# Entry
Amino acid sequence: MWWWRFGNDKNSLWVKVIRGKYNLDRRSWLPYTHGSGSISNVWKDICSVGNLDSALGFSIREGFKVQVNSGQDTLFWEHSWLGTTTLREEFPRLYQRSNQLDMVLSDICGGRGSADWNLQFRGTLRVRENQQYEELKQRLIGVTLEPSKQDSLQWIWTADKVFSVKSVYRQWESFAQSQNTLLGSVWRNLSPPKVEIFSWLAVQDKVATRSVLLQRNVISESQLAMCPLCALIVETPQHLLLHCRFAWAVWSGIVDWWNLQWACPSSVVELAPWWFGNRFRNLEKHIWEVCFLAILWSIWLTRNDYIFNGATTQASKVVDLVKTRVATWMKAKFDIKVYTVEDFKGYLNGIRKVKV
# Structure
């Protein structure tokens, strides 16, 4: 696999030739193109493998991780070394104020944990920027450098962290199967078609949030990419629909409505199998599963209302809207018209046991 060799054979002749020919940063771990100038079709194909909008592309993109040791070859802001995204994408406000945009970890960290990180910014940080800075410092706790070891590229899908074609196929097959099962779970004909279509996009991480629009150059200023509901973090699909504290409060409100407990997963994709893998039966199964669709749809509508109408609201009111939508959709689908929307909202434990 050329991606693996590109990251781990940095001193080989062919890598030096490629970097020189296409003016690539010597510290880059994965192959890429600038999008300008004359580029061979072979190199374009190599670079495009991990960008495929498929299970294969996902397996490759998510499989590579930079193992930080000395920190001499890892850019603090530009490389994905503290999670699956770059710190530039996670903390755009701090990135714009940073005086260390092109510095590697060893230039910023003294090597003994968060107390030794020498982060420098232009001017005085504002309230929201300070909040991001505090979150960043929490993320850096426990990170230490080992000057005697070089940074390296690892493959997370194998036990020995070494790339193999077999592991790609195994991960691709597993992901593709889970995706097919997962995508089928949202098509239940329990809610309006537009709701199921949106949920189908959400579980594939294809919702056009501000981070996606920024990548497509639809918007040009990274300030515009901030989440409209919390204004703290870049609005990625996973943040908006799950990790934003506003969205988290909505999910938790519905889980509490069912007298259940849960732990926040890393993505909507991971949440869906748990949600749809329930042991409920009959009507309560349908009510529980349609809650998933109603929550996603309600958060998205609230987000749009914030952006386009300047409206503000509380998570508790969105929770009430979710309950109303669930009740309305269930009453339209099943012969339970004797129960009002308020009955659903106030006496769920009784209604969910009804046989239909």
User: Anything to note?
Assistant: The first strand starts at residue 64 and ends at 67.
